[in-house]
């Protein structure tokens, strides 16, 4: 995987903005701590942490190693300096399910529960499981990505609250299953400010 290290070394950031990216790297997503690319023509995803967050590669790599390639999570390949390689999961996030009107079923929610329970049994404290950290694959499987905060100690209510919102609102017959992006963002902002009755 020496060439992966070279490729990652060519990526240049301005803060959390990648400004120089080799053409073989196709952007697939970005979050608070990293940007994720697919290596062109492969099923390899490369998560490159922003400057200042490089140490998280080691933390997240260790979590993946303990999860031992369980099907609830993307297969893990390698941790490098400031980056990780893992299976590129073909699919869409639960966030995109809402935007595109793809129904989120009871079974899908249950799969996330099972994944998090599995991680709990290994001694982790699954945290930060939000709409963009869960993928519905093209084979209708569910995979939890972004396990970097599974080692934190404090209680994270995100998944619990999402499930409550699912049961209380989403499942009602008259609630639309396709929700405009601006409205989801508005709800997320209210949630972060603790302005939701949840
Ligand atoms: N293995 C993967 N296969 C497919 N898409 C992925 C994969 N890993 C990440 N992504 C996409 O990239 C996005 C960002 O990745 P990730 O959640 O790991 O970054 P992060 O910076 O740790 O996010 P957060 O803001 O939740 O901390 C995800 O929301 C998802 O859309
Ligand atoms: Mg994420």
Automatic annotation (TrEMBL):
InterPro entries with a match to the protein in the record: Kinase-like_dom_sf, Meiotic_Drive_Suppr_Kinase
SUPFAM superfamilies, per the entry: Protein kinase-like (PK-like) (SSF56112)
Highest taxon of source: Bacteria
PANTHER family associated with the record: SERINE/THREONINE-PROTEIN KINASE YRZF-RELATED (PTHR37171), SERINE_THREONINE-PROTEIN KINASE YRZF-RELATED (PTHR37171:SF1)
Protein name per its UniProtKB record: Serine/threonine protein kinase
Annotated source species: Halobacillus aidingensis
């Amino acid at each position: 995987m020496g060439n992966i290290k070279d490729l990652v070394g060519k990526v240049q950031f301005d803060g959390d903005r990648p400004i120089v990216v080799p053409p073989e790297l196709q952007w697939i997503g970005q979050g608070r701590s990293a940007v994720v690319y697919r290596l062109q023509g492969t099923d390899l995803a490369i998560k490159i942490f922003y400057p200042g967050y490089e140490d998280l590669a080691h933390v997240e790599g260790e979590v993946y190693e303990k999860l031992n390639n369980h099907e609830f999570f993307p297969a893990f390949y390698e941790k490098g300096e400031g980056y990780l390689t893992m299976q590129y999961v073909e699919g869409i996030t639960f966030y995109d399910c809402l935007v595109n009107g793809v129904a989120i079923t009871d079974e899908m929610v249950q799969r996330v529960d099972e994944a998090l329970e599995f991680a709990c049994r290994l001694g982790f404290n699954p945290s930060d499981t939000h709409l963009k950290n869960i993928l519905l694959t093209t084979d209708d499987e569910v995979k939890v990505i972004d396990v970097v905060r599974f080692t934190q100690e404090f209680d994270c209510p995100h998944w619990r609250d999402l499930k409550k919102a699912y049961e209380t609102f989403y499942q009602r017959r008259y609630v639309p299953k396709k929700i405009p992006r601006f409205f989801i963002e508005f709800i997320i902002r209210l949630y972060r400010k603790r302005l939701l009755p949840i």
